[in-house]
Amino acid sequence: MLLAVAGATVGGLLRFQVNTKIESFLPANDPSLTAVEDKARSFGGDPIVVLLETPQPRQTLLDQDQLGRLLAVEGKLSRLPDVAAVYGPATVLNQIAISAQDLIAQIAGRRDAVRAQAEQAARAAGLPATTVTARGDQAVAAFDLRYGSLLVQGLPTGLPTLHNPRFVENVIYDSTGAPRPEWHFVVPSQNSIAVLVRPRENLDQEHTSHLVSAVRSTVADAKLTADRTTITGIPAITAGVADQVAKEAPLLAGLTALAMILRLVLVPARVSRPRRLIPLAASLAGSALTLALFGWLGVSMSFGAVALLPLLLGIGSSFPIYLQSLAGRRRVLVTALASAVAFGSLAVSPLPFVRELGLALAVGVVMTVLVALALHRSRSHEPPENAPLDQVALRPRVRWPLLVLAAAVAAAGWIGLAGASIQADPRDLAQGLPSLEDAQHAEAVLGSSGEVNVVLQGADVLSPQALAWSREAENAVTAKFGADVRPVLTPARLLSFLGAAPTTDEISAGLRVLPTYITSAVIRPDGQESLMTFGVKIGDVGQQARLLSDLRAALPPPPPGLRTDVAGLPVAANRAYTLLSDDRYLANLAGIGAAAVVLFAGLRRRGDAARGSLAAVLATGWTLAGITVAGLSLTPLTLALGSLITVTACEFTVLLANAHGRPGRRVIAWACVTSAIGYLALLPSSLALLRDFGLVLAIGVAASYLAAKAVLILLPARRPAAEPLMTAATVRKEIYS
């Protein structure tokens, strides 16, 4: 059986995956996320951005060798697996050149047809050969008079080919040498170019990481001349976070295990030193079984996997220590179950990565306790639960003022929760990582690092009314939010050469002239959806929420029969922020309530269950008050403080209520240290979000222990002392009486 379990565990661990794709930080099954997925299905996901900066203006595009290399790179990128589309300046130029050549060929073919028709008519009329030729020359002359001037105006720099530098310069740059506005999304400045690699929809983290790596290697192999090459974008950031998670998870777990070994071996205990390591072995086995279970179920974890192992080793190992050293196995098992349901209550969070962490911790606690029960079969020789306890007695005139003070501080913390700020800046997630530094540099060059999309849907988004609406919407957004929102690519900008009020026929003709490669970036092939892409900077979600709300209100009403929507990752992030802010009390009270139900149902003494629940309320309130006084912000992880602090507050209170003498209390005190170790082990993490989480929860563990002690002192249990054993003389006296 051991071999079978070990084999299944190893197999599950090999199947376990870490997935930090952006969807794990957004509300699942929410319309805002559905809109992001629909946009990715039609036009591709948020792009991987390849930014090339050169010392000389226009160096890459006007150098024939470099332009050829760039075209080859863009072609290779478009053929990579999981790529929906690639937009780059070389391909844009090549497609425009091909379209122009096709147009010239059509004009030349039409010219030949006009000559042939005129000559055929002259022959049919029986005119001589010289007259037939003259009639053909006259027809061609009229044709040339009409179209020749257009060709001269349209091709002032010669033939449309990439080998013609004047053609390249005229298409991309204006008379001042600056990039034309319609090409800013691939040529942001004279000294930089950008290649956008849009992945297909529903790309998981493994394939996203492979795609980012493939883009890096493809660009590196091209040997393009550039002072700086930056590869960034949302997929590159999530891939960087995933790599960091894979590196940090075993490192932090090892650091926690080392601290646990030192604590278990060096701290005096009543068991032999080899047996002191049983709690660590149980927590390691429980953690492995948890990850293996997730692997076999095909459930991946987000970056919360970094926190999972340290927390399970720190908090989960407390229960094997209790089983080994304390009386009342029932109490230990009930508190373990209460801890599991408190962790599991994080499932109420709208964010998948918070739910995953909570459920994994709940399963991990259960697994650890089961392993501990299998390893520790002997019963403790501690006194039974109804033995008399040595309690600190305080006079009522001292006890009640202290209780009121403790409750008042906690109440202040709970009241302050309503107005506490939530730190919801996506940059905090990757703070300290090279991928964030690359994103910030690209933002400085490109003017934006994220995308907001205005989607127009209906039976015909190519009508003159729809194009006019697109132009009006772009002007309204630019005029009101020009400092924060910049147009990247819109139908009106792409078809600006048609003039202010093109007809239906002119729009159709313009779309035939433009390459499908370019028009597909803004118009779906079936003509029922168009996309306006605006660039925004990564920033605090709360501030962006107001910006997006104002942007939505600034859009003009769409034409009859059409509907519009604002989509994009910033919109989904704003939705997640709103859900988090609205559910802050539910997130904190859910764990306390769930743990209280378990304690009241499982403990024989309901008073201990009530004290444990009260300690959780007090500890959470004290921690929240401390955060408010310190001027700190809550994060998506620490927002559910109540559910997390409940684990230790109930545990310490219930077990201290039955701890007999100094040895029993000392075991629980060291369990407090052990739990804090699990949180403090997150401090070396390079992810700021996890560092803050570890620090705040370590303080919460200390508050839990203090709250447990305070509750037991200020609200002592009323238990009669055990009756002394009767002597023989007493027995005789009782009989005679």
TrEMBL record:
Keywords annotated in UniProt: Membrane, Transmembrane, Transmembrane helix
Lineage, top ranks: Bacteria, Bacillati, Actinomycetota, Actinomycetes, Pseudonocardiales
Transmembrane segments: 249-266, 278-297, 303-323, 332-351, 357-375, 402-424, 585-603, 615-634, 640-660, 667-687, 693-715
Superkingdom of source: Bacteria
Name of the protein in question: RND transporter
